[in-house]
């Protein structure tokens, strides 16, 4: 069994990360009724029980004991991490895993990347090394951060390049939360474009998530739960909406949205955490889905999100889940993959689903999905037998698809609008190590990324030349 380490940076990174840890512990408690520390738990948790022989990790009721998350928590203000340390997850982290400062990066990528990146470099590397040393076979780093602020975006991407330097062999999968157009951080276009260049150069895979999509999904779930439309039904035990991130009005603003991102992480890590008939290794994601190193943005979609009718017809419900994964309103960014070009696609299924169900659905959906001519069979599949709590099955699709292009074009447009007027630029250029060229190079990197997707888009519909047929003369 291999292990992974989660690195959560900034407010968003830490809030999303903690939703993941909370839900992961619930899942393990659901499956591991005796609370024995086993290989499944060891993938993301270490056992700190001094009586190692007891192997006991958690009580039958799911109460956590002797477990520490394989995580490093970084934020340049204290508020979020302090809150975590006062909450139900306080026992899951110890002080050696935490790194905080007091003032934050003030929504300034340069402060996070340059100032704090240099000041805390050694401490960050030290914490990463210690956490890595506690793994027998470290397979993957999961970095979680937002693009729009200063710490997650600036320091988060600095951490990414430190990971590459220190652990070049270990896969780096980044979950990046993109700001919505109405984001209240005025400098978010700068921060996002500056971060994009780092993601393009130093990540193995990026799972982009847009806050606007999360808002839309939550609004739809709320609407459905209130209108109680005939034929539709919300599963209230679902991990998507239960717990702190539920439909409860008293929750904090981002909780419900973060629950969805945490579910994305639960799904992608499920094969590493549990047994399955078709295990998908985390390394295989990049290996199979990324034909060109820079084009490693994998659009995630999650189902079920809105638990619909047809409870009594399992096959139809199962097939619906596969259809939904390709529909616009299940994507975690504002995108429509069916009308763009697929370079490759992974389907990660959880629960009681057969390989034959997977094959049947791929065959059924294939004709309606435009795949690049040289990779028509570019599917990667995984089956994990443990479903999410409250569901019989679930599906995460990761699409390497040119539909990410509009998100990037919108970012570029918003960046250019500010940059043309040199608005807020002085805040960045005052920072030691930050130069104007950082802006122009980041913009050039984004522009060429958009062009690369565009060039592929232009090949859509152009079939590969027919292989000459052998004619048999009579
Ligand atoms: N989905 C989601 N988005 C968040 C959350 N917290 C902040 N954001 C978004 O992230 C961006 C701001 O980044 P933060 O993560 O708050 O900033 P930070 O990394 O802490 O950086 P500084 O505060 O500038 O030091 C904005 O686009 C917010 O809308 C969260 O918990 N969930
Ligand atoms: Mg902050």
TrEMBL record:
Keyword vocabulary terms for this entry: Cytoplasm, Cytoskeleton, GTP-binding, Microtubule, Nucleotide-binding
Domain Tubulin/FtsZ GTPase: 54-276
Pfam family, one: Tubulin
Domain Tubulin/FtsZ 2-layer sandwich: start-end pairs: 278-413
One GO process term, biological-process aspect: microtubule-based process
GO molecular function, one term: GTP binding
SUPFAM superfamilies referenced in this protein's UniProt entry, alphabetically: Tubulin C-terminal domain-like, Tubulin nucleotide-binding domain-like
UniProt KW Cell inner membrane keyword: no
Subcellular location: Cytoplasm, Cytoskeleton
Record-linked InterPro entries: Epsilon_tubulin, Tub_FtsZ_C, Tubulin, Tubulin/FtsZ_2-layer-sand-dom, Tubulin/FtsZ_GTPase_sf, Tubulin_C, Tubulin_CS, Tubulin_FtsZ_GTPase
Family affiliation: Belongs to the tubulin family.
PANTHER family: TUBULIN (PTHR11588)
Protein name from the UniProt record: Tubulin epsilon chain
Origin species: Betta splendens
